[in-house]
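DATA SHEET
Item: assembly model
Revision: 1
Owner: S.N.
Input lines:
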Amino acid sequence: MTNEIVLEVKNLKTHFISNKGTAKAVDGIDFVLRKGETMGIVGESGCGKSMTSLSILRLIPSPPGKIVDGQVLLKGQDLVTMSEEEIRKIRGNRISMIFQEPMTSLNPVIPVGEQIAEALRLHQGLSKKQAWDKSVEMIGLVGIPSPEKRAKQEPFQLSGGMRQRIMIAMALACTPEVLIADEPTTALDVTIQAQILEIMKDLQKKIGMGIIFITHDLGVVAEMCDQVGVMYAGQIVEHQDTKDLFKNPLHPYTQGLIGSLPKLYEDQEELQIIEGTVPSPYEYPEGCRFAERCPFATDICIQKQPNLIQYDENSKVRCWKYSDEWQDSLTKEGVAL
Amino acid sequence: MTINSTEVDSAKLILARKKIRKEKWKTFFMTIGQNKAAAVGGVIILLYISLTLLAPILSPYDPYEINLPDKLHSPSMAHWMGTDDKGRDILSRILYGSRLSLGVGFSSVFFGAFFGITLGLVAGYYGKWVDTIISRCLDVMLAFPGILLALAIISALGPSLINVTIAVGVFSIPLFARIVRGSTMEVKKLEYIDAIRTLGANDFIIIFRHIFPNILSPIIVQGSLRLATAILSAAGLSFLGLGAQPPSPEWGAMLSSGRDFIFSAPYMAIFPGLMIAILVLGFNLFGDGLRDALDPRTKK
Amino acid sequence: MFLFILKRLVQIVPVILGVTLVVFLIMQMVPGDPAVIMAGEGASKETVNELRENLGLNRPLYEQYFSYVGNVFKGDLGNSLKNNQPVLDEIMIRLPITMELAFFSIMITIVLGLIAGIISAVRPYSFSDISVMVVALIGISLPSFWLGLLLMYVFSVKLQWLPVAGWDSTAHIILPAITLGAGGAAIVARMTRSSMLEVVGQDYIRTAKAKGLKGHVIIYKHALRNALIPVITVVGLQFGSLLGGTVLVESVFAINGLGRMIVDAIRTRDIPMVQGGVLVASLVFVFVNLLVDVMYKVFNKRIDLN
Amino acid sequence: GSSSKSEEKADNPTTTGDKSGGKLVVVRLSDATGLDPHFITDIPSANVVHGKVYETLLAFDKDRNFAPLLATEWNQVDDLTWDFTLREGVKFHDGTPFNAEAVKATFDRLLDPVTGSPQKDKLGMISEVIVKDDTHVTLKLATPYAPLLSILASSEGSILSPKMINETPDQLATHPVGTGPFVFDSWKSGQEITLNKNNDYWGEKVKVDSVVFKVVPEDATRLAMIESGEAHISDQVPVTEIERIENSDKMNLFRTDGLAVEYVGFNTTKAPFDNVKVRQAISYAIEREAIISGVYNNVGTLANVAMSPQVFGYSKDVKAYPYDVNKAKSLLKEAGYDKGIKVTLLTSDRKERINMAEVIQSQLKGIGVDVEIKVMEYGSYIKEIESGEHQMFISGWGNATGDGDYNQYNLFHSASVGAPGNNFYYQNPVVDKLIVQARVETDPSKRQEIYKQAMQIEMDDAVYVPIRNYEHLAVYNNKVENFRLDASNYLILNEVTVK
Amino acid sequence: MSNLLKEKSPLLKVSDLKQHFALKKEAIFQPKQVVKAVDGINFDLYPGETLSIVGESGCGKSTTGRSILRLDEPTDGDVLFKGESLLKMNKKELRNVRGNIQVIFQDPYASLNPRRTIRQMLEEAMAIQKVLPPNQREARMLELMKHVGLRPEYLERYPHEFSGGQRQRIGIARALAVNPEIIICDEAVSALDVSIQAQILNLLKKLQKDYDLTFLFISHDLSVVRHISDRVMVMYLGKVVEIADKSSLFNNPMHPYTKALLSAIPVIDETKRRERIILKGDVPSPINPPTGCRFHTRCPFATERCRQEEPLLREVDTNHSVACHFAEELLS
Ligand SMILES: Nc1ncnc2c1ncn2[C@@H]1O[C@H](COP(=O)(O)OP(=O)(O)OP(=O)(O)O)[C@@H](O)[C@H]1O
Ligand SMILES: Nc1ncnc2c1ncn2[C@@H]1O[C@H](COP(=O)(O)OP(=O)(O)OP(=O)(O)O)[C@@H](O)[C@H]1O
Ligand SMILES: [Mg+2]
Ligand SMILES: [Mg+2]
């Protein structure tokens, strides 16, 4: 991990403020992404994965959404405080996104080639003709046969897999430094998913961008990512290199998550489960957000929020269990592990 | 489980049930209340309804009493909205007329909704040839520009407020039917309908207990917007002299007789015109607000 | 596409047949003997009977209907009872006028409606949005004939900027077209707004933003085209009520159009005229709907999927 | 540019050059139904051609005396024979000369059953038209008929081009060809009819270049057009606008007494109006003066019988029932209706009539008669009163000829029960006899006396309540001069000038 | 275990089931287009077992389930429930027998009527099938709620007041209310997060034991399928391509499609990853399915024969049937 840092997110907080109250969708996210590296973000539905990715490019629906705190540094340049005009020049150019739903993320009435070419004309100042040619080239690059023909078609004429590839082509057209992929394969079949993941890996090798890969599928993470952040209730609760995470999950939530997956090559009578439900983003508990469901929770977990602490060189975890206070709280209570 | 604990349980349950009912209404009104437009619309409608009920108390004069020497007084302290060409107090007539105008609106929409919903449910649920036949018939009805259909019906039945109601109702049948048919086809595909079918429910239960309640919101929205149009259409028919019979103070008829005085005594047309416009506005606001409030997309 | 249009054209036939049947039946229910009305005040019984015989009003109903439908397909809509002119000729005098009025009104509806709707949608809940929408709501709520009289009073009688009534010059078109188009414009404005707001919330708009496109490109290139799809349908439906609305507006502004012709014909029990008029009005309506469907299909190719 | 300016000029009917007489624009409620006098049954249609395109043998002058027109002299030889001397040097608009043959061709067409003219009956007593020479013609009658001249002076007596009659009779309905001061130009159905000045007219030529009859159905719109100068004359004026017109410096009002009357009729065969006491009670209870002033704004005069003072045979000595509520009440009591009755009052959808109905409804409330108003659109209204299902109805009777026979025979003779006009379903042998007697009586003063007797009986039987003698109104822009309406509501345009 | 099963008579026997949907015609002269969603499939379902159907989106899994229940009227074939033909029943007979086969649907949001409380749903279900005398239903409802792990006072609530996992439990309770013998789970856990999914899977397993249920489990998630099933059936474009005991199928997939499918699943444990077979192209449309073997367009081993001749489903090993001409050759 000697590569230069391209993106650094510091204490990012995105809240939704409405008359129902404040939903802390993203509540203090920190991470670092290096050139050529893939970072995975996993977590259950609603934990704030998408909002994190949208916040980076300031695409959260506003109102009611608002970035209330933090920095997003692209090679040291803060995106959060930039003018709208400046960030527009970064979007689709230096940082690109791929969205979850290939069905709805393309404009249904514009030929796909044009949808790609549009960004090229804007950011790279290409002529109409040049942009179109480049766009056709990109479509070929993501493995769609007869790209000239496909470029002229509209999204409804393409299959889901093809559309997602178009999305990838669009995102990569301007050779961005950072690619944010928000559940790019969730809507696809496994065999198609395998195709897409393969293409993404190939292209990353060619272009060398850093990827933020958002998913809830731990299997995909295992295959795609170098390091993983596990999110729970708007926060990162654990951050490790991928191999370590699956070998040695630190946070009780990560442990529960891995445990509740049915294993493909093992027989299990019963699956391990995490009791309870995720707290509402409108009213997070004061202490650890997972405490309510945590088999190890003690008083301190309920009273005080843990910080994301450095566990070892490449691992961080947000859990009292790994803190210095843990032993104290246990002895005070007199509970033995 | 002992008998005792079940009893306790069911007592708890009944309480819970009551609370839920109450809250259901409360949330309904809250959602409406939160939508400013709907709230304004609702207030306007309530105001009109109370005018309707209180007309006998509020009216300063007999709305039918002809008093020729007092004709065409412009608005004054004695006659806030002036008097008409027969010396009747316009305010009193408007107050009494709200009954008729609202009545025409509500009953025609009810009429149209009743047949429209039934046809729409049947067409949407059974599909196939039933749908084809009903849809073609609706096409025929829709192919008539609405007011022409109403005109033809009224000239067949003779001009009267009831016939206006029927005529206006008839041309809202296809509108309701289309909406209901569409929603029915949508809801029919949902899994909970499959679920009730796999439980062995018959068509009647499926249509009326499971589909109908779930397509109510577009119906209500459509209904309140139709009310607006119905009142306007009825006024239009009265304008053509095909509506309420004299001396009834229906607003459309008042407006229609006032149009001869649009230059010399404009208040005769302006007040009923305003009353119609505001009422229609009320229903439009309410319907729109309702649509927003009931739309699951905006709710979430 | 060609086949689609052909299919739709074929479907029109039963609808038109249905229309003729309904009009025919309704006109049968209408009280008032056309022969008596034609003969005029104080005509003798013999005259009336003679007239009735000549008009074929003594034949059984179904016979009258079938011979009527047969003639319709030959392009013969019969003769007016009133002036004995071919109904088709009478209609052809007025149809262009009504179509012209409808055309200009629908233009007003579309242009005003779209502009207002876009202004509103670009900055939702802003002052301009709210004021445009308030005006739109008022526009919907005004009875059209009332609006027409008010406009006439202000612009023609008081200010004398525009002619009062008639259909002779461009200036004559303005007030009736506004009167007729206003309600529709308001509806289109509201539809455009809500449709735009919905489209703006769609994933592909987010994609467009993520590409770094400029705001106006997003609005006009990505959002508007999609937002127009439901608007087209509304405009199509609007055209229907517009045809109905011509009845009132043509009365107010003394325009010799189809709507007024039908109303007059109903009043005078000129049955062939009513039948012909309603038939043509329905045909126009049905064709406009076909046109709307075709446009809808062109704009929204996704429909092919289902 | 200049071209647009000239267009503007052409558009504006009031702009006239020195020489040109300009275009006169007349706006009216409804279009003509046809322009063939043998088929015209309504005044709005007749108004377009009568005295403008077509001329009659003789005409009424301002004072409703007979004046020569196409005939210079006439002479009743005996009860059944009339001689006419025709004007020389007159040509139809199509170039055909006007002569005795033309007169014969016209009347033969009218009387030929094949033509199917609804007006045939009015001149049905003519048995033969004899051409003596080019300028002399004789009418032979089957029965003596006193009112002959007045019918000949009406629209029904128009003389048509024999060329048209022989060659293209079907076109007469849309393309009238007569001898009048105006030449038919064009008819845009439902919109307007244009007549041009006849530059070859035999008499004094009209002052305007052309006249356009435009259809403008809305009262308010018509008035706005007159006020703004967009149109010049409107012959249908809402009575409620009189003050405004009179106060306006842009508009003038023309009023003239008409030949028609308006009355409330009873169906004498339908309970409770089969009882003469009930009819009388109602007659006492209606305050007619209030209607004239309140509803009609004093347009027209209080009628005493169902015949206008302008009509031959009128008598002012027959008195209507005075307003007397007590009498009315006691009569009702006598009739056994002291607990009140419910009746329906039928009217057509003319605004003034509806207003009148409302006022009557309110007046009759005073004697405990509960009136339900039934407004019917004209066609249905006619059907209803002809079917005899009605009770009380508001109606009027015009009189194109100005003769009492047209009035009494159609309204009260038992032969006219139902469709022809006796919608009272009134049958009184005495009255029948009197009416027939008046028909053949040639002595005007004796005829007058007979009509008076008949009318007195009708009044005693309280068949109807006379309300109003018509007064015709027209509004015209102050750029128009020398305009008048005649008693039959015809526009007289011969001398009109437009500034 | 599978041998034991075979000795029992099947609870449900599906033979040559076909479900073709006619597409709406665009124009009068256009030939009729048909989606062959399910195109002649055979299988048996034995009492007490869990048979899973897997395959990619659109291959006809749900349609199979719906055809069995006659939610869509099948085009051809037969379905025997305890030897009686479901397809030949009239409406009334069908309504009566329906209580025996219940469904749990994929979408926990769409499968509950939003206007009805849980109590109303359960009561109605029991009333329609007349499972218990009315006075005993209350107790039964409370029992059901306990079984699926919901609090009894939730009976009065409306569906929108529940989370996805809770809703799925309600759906399960409703299915159980009428004492069914077979439950068809159509993607019953696909919409849920893994932690919730685990809860529901455990619940289903428990209920199967308690009530002696038979499951037809439709899913595209192979790890879930492996966890829950006894036997697995793989479908591709409306056809069964392989059906076998779970262990046999997962350890020894025979059909090239099954192999590719299994290899495409992302696996956490690196040591267990198979060599990935990346299939080319997209799933063909069921409107004009390829001739011969439907998989030949994407099959790395396809030959001319595959293009011409449709392979039949044949038993290659005990309780392991596959529809591939070259199953044996490919094994080696
Ligand atoms: N418009 C909004 N108003 C209020 N809250 C919102 C809004 N959009 C998102 N949220 C909240 O933000 C939180 C995070 O949402 P986000 O979409 O980031 O979740 P996610 O992790 O991407 O989930 P998924 O896996 O379902 O995509 C959610 O709990 C949601 O309640
Ligand atoms: N009512 C219908 N009309 C027309 N085609 C249909 C209908 N229902 C299903 N289909 C088609 O039949 C095929 C099989 O659909 P089915 O829902 O059974 O697939 P599935 O295997 O359940 O897929 P998924 O995993 O996406 O649920 C699809 O191509 C689908 O489009
Ligand atoms: Mg997300
Ligand atoms: Mg499915």
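QC remark: The longest strand of chain D covers residues 251-266.
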